[in-house]
Specification:
single chain, about 260 residues, alpha/beta, Rossmann fold, six-stranded mixed beta sheet, four-stranded antiparallel beta sheet, 10 strands, about 35% helix, globular, binds adenosine-5'-triphosphate, binds magnesium ion
């Protein structure tokens, strides 16, 4: 059986940069659908994301894991092109588009959507209103009807103010709002946080349906076991660098690896 791959510094520095250009689209050299290549990012003087690389295939679910403070949220924010941390080096490609050259609103128009840990439901707006706000400008994604088919609970509460929903319902609304944009990649930061296991089951089911629709997902979760059960692949971060890149099953099977980097 193949050993899991702990990436050594030597391997990282010897990695050759893939050819991301449009014309290199033959099978052998085809760039991954979503590629993060050697990104470095800072909060002011603080150097946090220290050369992170990974590839995600279209329609795959990747679990991005690591202990508290490993740099998971910062990596997601850098990828989504938010101002902080600032991306100083590296490339992010989505379906041949260079997100690293874009502002966050352009990256969003090109199909990437971050659902942050605090969910950011707009106060004073109903469930309908929160979703419609996301549909104000193109590219528009799923219709209200399609969204409520996926989230019947939200449909039942469509006239209720969004911030009065339960934690699980607010998480569903945050995902619904992302789907209301025409997205290719969904970035989820701690979607299960504070939720009862039965609600986690429900959200997990939804994420599988979203996957069947061809959307690619990167999930950051403290509940690593649940994330690994959902994910196809896993990347583990430690102090802002990648220490493991492999299948989710390899992490589930490797107690040592989990103890060392995930404390589970
Ligand atoms: N706004 C900020 N300014 C300065 N440093 C920050 C800022 N946000 C995070 N950091 C630092 O960056 C490092 C990585 O934080 P980050 O939030 O990305 O980790 P994380 O893996 O998401 O952790 P957690 O599991 O606790 O959410 C930490 O040392 C943190 O203190
Ligand atoms: Mg975090």
């Amino acid at each position: 059986m193949a050993q899991h791959q702990i990436i050594t510094e030597d391997q990282l520095t010897n990695r050759t940069r893939p050819d991301f250009s449009k014309h290199a689209n033959q099978a052998a050299t085809a760039p991954a659908y979503f590629s993060v290549w050697d990104i470095h990012a800072y909060y002011g003087e603080s150097y946090i994301v220290q050369g992170v690389s990974f590839n995600v295939h279209e329609g795959e679910i990747l679990a991005l894991l690591g202990r508290n403070g490993a740099g998971k949220t910062s990596t997601l924010r850098a990828i989504a092109r938010l101002d902080n941390p600032s991306l100083t080096h590296g490339e992010v490609w989505l379906d041949h588009k260079p997100l690293h050259q874009m502002k966050s609103y352009e990256a969003s128009s090109n199909g990437i959507q971050l659902v942050p840990e605090d969910r950011r439901i707009s106060p004073g707006l109903t469930v309908d209103g929160n979703i419609q706000l996301a549909q104000i400008a193109p590219p528009i994604g799923w219709s209200l009807d399609r969204i409520y088919e996926l989230f019947p609970r939200l449909g039942e509460r469509r006239k209720q103010e969004g911030v009065t929903l339960s934690g699980g319902e607010q998480q569903m609304l945050a995902v619904a709002r992302a789907l209301a944009r025409d997205i290719k990649v969904l970035l989820l930061d701690e979607p299960y946080e504070g939720l009862a296991p039965v609600i986690v089951d429900e959200i997990e089911k939804t994420l599988n349906i979203i996957k069947e629709q061809g959307i690619t997902t990167v999930i950051v979760e403290q509940n690593a076991i649940r994330a690994l059960m959902l994910a196809d692949r896993a990347v583990i971060l430690d102090t802002g660098t990648v220490v493991f890149d492999g299948t989710a099953q390899e992490v589930l099977d490797n107690e040592e690896l989990r103890a060392e980097y995930l404390a589970i």
